Amino acid sequence: MKAMKWGGVTLMYAFVILLAAGMTVPFVYMLATSLKTLPESMQYPPTWIPRLWVWDNYVQIWHQTELLLWLKNSFVVAIARVASQLVLGMLAAYAFAFLSFRGKQVVFIGMLMVLMIPHQVVIIPQFLLMKQLGWLDSYKALIVPQMVWPFAIFLFRQYFLTLPLELIEAAKMDGCNPLGTLLRIVIPNAKPVMMTMILVTFLSHWNDFMWPLIVTNSQERMVLPVGMANMVGEFSTNWPVLMTVATYATLPVIALFIGGQRYFIEGMTSSGLK
Length: 274
Known about the structure:
With 274 residues, the protein is mainly alpha-helical. Helix content is 72%, strand content 0%.
């Protein structure tokens, strides 16, 4: 029995290691390509280890492209979207979880039904609305339509429902209003789900391509994914330069995950209790 148990554990770890290695391969190849010369990056079969390590790619890229501007726009849009979805999502989730009002379940179900509508279906109406408001090629067009995400409300509500009702009732008995209860009781106990939400939404908005491509048409408002897409030529592409930009694009996400992985894991496993 012990041999079978250890054999099962060994197979599980072997499978996880192979899965992790498979997910790492694209990143390793991206780093290797970013350090190659252009002729070597076009060779077939491709080489994994560069013959000549061109570290200068990571310096010259700042002069060859508008990388700094793309990064600034992506940070502004992603942080604004994440902050608004975090604040508005928690406010709405608190109402759905702890407040009583007529038609609450109907409104909540209607909100969930929005998740079933593909984003591509509403792109044209949203674009026409942005055009009528005169917001095209502006931060408002990039941020305002994405300020509320029904999934964020759903996730926060489900987590809030795991909190003991005694905490909420005790706060009410002490004279705390709903906003004060949210700020002093609920949010301090919701750090794991908040970090989970920040990671998920930041990754989604950091990589957003379709909507910024539609509503912007100038370099001043171009975000990183659109800028990278413009680097792909019709007949040729400078792959080392493109992979260098892609490497820079992954660094903020990696840093955010490393800094918040403890809360992320806790948010996936905990019940909301200290």
